[in-house]
Amino acid sequence: MAADERRKVRIEERLKIKIGEAKNLQCRSHGSVGQRDVYCTLSLDQEEIFRTTTIERTLNPFFGEEFQFEVPRRFRYLSVYVYDRDRHLKQDKVLGKVAIKREDLHSYHNKDHWLSIRPVDADSEVQGKAHIEVKLEPIVKGNNDNELPNTRLSVRLIECSDLTIKNGSCDPYAAVTVIYSNSRTESKRTKVKKKTVSPHFDELLTFELPNSRTLSGQNHDRDTYNIERDIEFSELNVTLWHDTPGMSDKVFLGEVRIPLRGQFTSSNAWYFLQPRSSKNRPSKSSPGALPGTQESLGSLRLNIHYTADYVFSSHVYDNLRDLILQSTHVEPVTSSAAYILGEIVPSKLDAAQPLVRVFMHSGQIVPMIRALARWEISKVTDANTIFRGNTLVSKMMDEVMKLAGLHYLHSTLRPAMDLVFQERRPCEIDPTRVKDPTVIEANLANLKEYVETIFQAITTSALQCPALMCQLFHDLKELASLRFPDNNEVKYSVISGFIFLRFFAPAILGPKLFDLTTEQIDSQTNRTLTLISKTIQSLGNLVSSRSSQQTCKEEYMMAVSQAFYTERHIQAVRHFLEIISASSNPGHRSLDSPVVLKEGVMIKRAQGRKRFGRKNFKQRYFRLTTQDLTYSKMKVPSCSVAGKEPLCCIPLDQILAVERLQEDSFKMKNMFQIVQPEHRALYIQANNCVEEKEWIDILTKICQTNSNRLKRYHPSAYINGHWLCCRSTNDMAPGCSDVSRGLEAGLQMNLDPDRELQRIHSLFIAHMDRLETLKDACECQAVYTGDICFLPSFVIEDVQSCFKTLTHLQEVAFTLEQEHRSYLRSLARETKYGSKQAPIGDDNYLLLAARVGRLDSGMLRKTYSMSN
């Protein structure tokens, strides 16, 4: 692979983690001894990304929360911290954590694991790396031939990167300590660098061995004397500290230990910072958070789904792309590459996600789902079971609705959901869950009111349903009606099964997963959402022949369902379903009022300020809609009222560029800029790197159609009379860097077909044994006769066409795998151990080499298999 092609390869990582439950947490030593109020935080290294709801009064909390996100930066550890919200001490106490190295995430992939909670020690909470140059060289003082050459150790601390923020800031300096062979130590320190996690020190510190004895007499041999010398350099310790003026205890940030004995002469490398060594660690009961010898503080159940895709240039995937897209024309559809992928992968969702994005990007998602749905419906004998299972076409429909219908979902549900979050009225109607049975009637009234509000929001939203969803609903209704012409209700039930049971109900149950809220949800509100979701699911069955009594599993839910099993509600559901499936081309959809896309608290710098000052930075509540971006002092209702207008309103057509801001501008992390006309820039700091990426992505996406978008911008700020990036003194100077590659225009989905094709390739490679089993079945059972071949959970309707597709898939997968092997080999050759990309102190370089070796052996097996 050529060097320019290697540079185009990008690594895309995604994490999905479900925090299930914790067990056997330690008791408190005060207050409610047998109880704790527990929550968890999810962190990349020490940067908090997400936080769960607090579960009160238990030592065995159940969370059941799932978080998923694109990984925005490199990290060493994925950590889940467990906290106790201690009301007595009025502060939260960390109970322990589970930390998993990035290189080990694959071993936990997509399975539940119980992991021990380990103590958290401040001396082990380190991150970052340091660039250190060390030279050991002889020096001679004067011209005295009888004086032995001395030895000097030169240590240059060049820079550090990604240090830990302590107490909201980072003012680092380094203490450089030399340990001699006689246990004597000598220390020097660098200057303090203020307000930065990536300090540039570039300081040279020198050390010399104790004075040497002078040679006496002509017969004294110099070499013999050197052997007798018993003092030499033994070890170099470079320790990073956070400067805390006025405090007696300095804050440890990490250290690097470099042995100097033996043949050591010099080194110039990057090193990962390490936890404080045991010999330098103050006496504590728990030595650290990671080693397996520590006592357990309970256990935590996690399910982690981690993917890292090496994505090549688009042309590399041409053959795979063509093979997948041909699936819409293959007859029968069971011989298509898309169908085969869905059958060989155990999780239909894993196959559906990349397939949907590839077909959507090419504009062929409608004919593909129609082909799969036609085949599936043809095998159904009971109309009530259509799409009730987790088949490939069902999962693909789920993914289409999530991608195409997210903004529709927000505009429909957000006002009603916000009401539930704000009022927090109790809705529990299960007699086994309430202490006082007399409150059930009032709770039932609250629940009915919430359900009615959401029901009205859904059934009056038909005109806002996205055109793509309407087209698919129209096709599914048509196919079901043709299959069951005597069933007048199937045309409704086939759609309600998706829009109610698979779209609205899951969003109500898990609002965080659908970006309906970013706030913490308490246990009572969670229960309310569960009851509302159950009711909405039953409302989806109002148009079928099944009565409310048949659709309610819990007796206490009967009262709610019966309240909505009326002619008015049935007609409302049918009218809604008729509209969203009435035509394959429902026309242009326009929203009468702006839809809130994203909102939250961030820190912004006052616009127009040229000088740097901490007072210029203010915390504001930002709200992005389909019309504008606003910020206010505090959260206000979506519709402005008198006296509560936002402090600033930026129409979307006035946003010319959205880009990250270099840290050197204000020495603050996670900052980005919104460039407006006349080079006015609004500088904003997000709470963490994931939130920063989300804001940049969505702002760039919805502003993509602006005709006056900038092509170049300034990556740093204009401060003290000049741009920090290009040093130009003209504040109106054109940008000095190209803007980033834009996302999809308008409110379209952010699709990355090359990455999805890489995911499809990885799935085929991971399940190549199943592919070979299918091919063997075709070869041995009916290649020439065309008989139907039955395998467990798979039907080969046309053996010859299926055999042809399987053969082609193997060839394409093999060719792509050769590209990956070539790339990883070249990467292993070019990656220098000790570079910034592969610092010393971790096994990432060795893991890369081992992976190449595994790939080589795997390729030998595939080559032999295909040649025979």
Blueprint of the fold:
Blueprint: H1 3-8, E1 10-23, E2 36-44, E3 47-51, E4 55-58, E5 62-70, E6 77-86, E7 91-101, E8 112-116, E9 129-139, E10 150-161, E11 172-180, E12 185-189, E13 200-208, H2 222-228, E14 233-242, E15 251-259, E16 266-272, E17 299-311, H3 318-325, H4 337-344, H5 348-362, H6 365-378, H7 392-404, H8 406-423, H9 440-459, H10 467-483, H11 490-509, H12 523-539, H13 548-551, H14 558-564, H15 567-580, E18 596-605, E19 617-625, E20 628-632, E21 648-651, E22 657-660, E23 671-676, E24 680-685, H16 689-702, E25 712-713, E26 718-719, E27 722-723, E28 737-738, H17 753-766, H18 768-781, E29 789-791, E30 794-796, H19 799-830, H20 844-867
Antiparallel strand pairs: 1-5, 1-17, 2-3, 2-4, 2-6, 6-7, 8-17, 9-10, 9-16, 10-13, 11-12, 11-14, 14-15, 18-19, 18-24, 19-20, 20-21, 22-23, 23-24, 25-28, 26-27, 29-30
Helix pairs in contact: 4-5, 5-7, 5-17, 6-7, 6-10, 7-11, 8-9, 9-12, 9-14, 10-11, 11-12, 18-19, 19-20
